[in-house]
Amino acid sequence: MIARSVKALQFAAALLLAASFSPAASAQEWPPHNLRILVPFPAGGSADTQARVIADELSKRLGKPVVIENKPGAGGNLAATEAARSAPDGTTLYMATTGTHAANINLYDKLSYDPVKDFQPLSLVTIYPQVITASGSYKDLDLVGLIAAIKQQGEKLNFGSSGVGSPTHLGGELFNREVGTRLMHVPYRGQGPAITDLLGGRLDVMFPSIPDALPMLQAGQMRAIALMAEKRSPAIPDVPTTAELGYPKLLSAIWAGLYTTAGTPKPVVDRLAAELAVIIDAPQFKNKFEAMGFEVRSSTPEQLGAYAASETKRWGDIIKALDIKLN
Fold this sequence. Notes:
Elements: H1 2-20, E1 35-39, H2 46-62, E2 66-70, H3 77-84, E3 92-97, H4 98-107, E4 119-129, E5 131-134, H5 143-153, E6 158-161, H6 167-179, E7 184-187, H7 191-199, E8 205-206, H8 210-218, E9 224-227, E10 253-261, H9 266-281, H10 283-290, E11 295-296, H11 301-322
Helix pairs in contact: 2-9, 4-11
């Protein structure tokens, strides 16, 4: 009964807001108050860094403060649930990722939010491909040599990830499937400890994103054997892609996009999408994040919705085939 009452109140608020946006109404009447961007990870991470730059620019353009609220936990589900239950007035934005809006619906039997029905897409922000890297014993090999070495060892070698169901886990399982290896998965509580063990030789292979690996790549502590993408990255231009090396289906990347709550009036959605496109496509934003290894890519709301749907199916097929479940 309480949930129904909350939904009813939210629906009524949406109708009132929609009514205020008559064709004659000025777009400057919105927003009515401060905005917030919910980030499902701790401060300092990739999604948080992007959200903070966007928040600063959006605040300037809208003339209202835009605050960041970090709510990590449950693979992003805590923040996603709060965003889904927020008033549908466009003042709560959510920094979604591959996990929250593509993988989790396939990983959890009971999800406390629906990534499609409860959210309104606004714009894609970045895509960050993952790299194939290995411990010191294998780091001088090319991709063909690495695959041969792994197959020779059978099930003796492993790969590390930031946790079960994480993009680094799914990227490793995709590798096993596409090249016919049987690397054993070793989940960690976060990517930092896993990378430490890779550098220390306690892990054999990892599949981190470019931004996470770039500082160590630049310092010579780690070597990228291949980029799991179709085209090379300007951040690591000398690293070949899996597509050009003969593995066109061995593609794995993390993505981030901005959503708001479902039911937000179309004029508000249009205004937000337009403002975000200007911010994301600005040279200062693109240059900053491309130098960090991100592929910066704004989109229309419809394009983000279609992209998330394709990613949900692609990773869902892999998750179901491996029978991975988180409850």
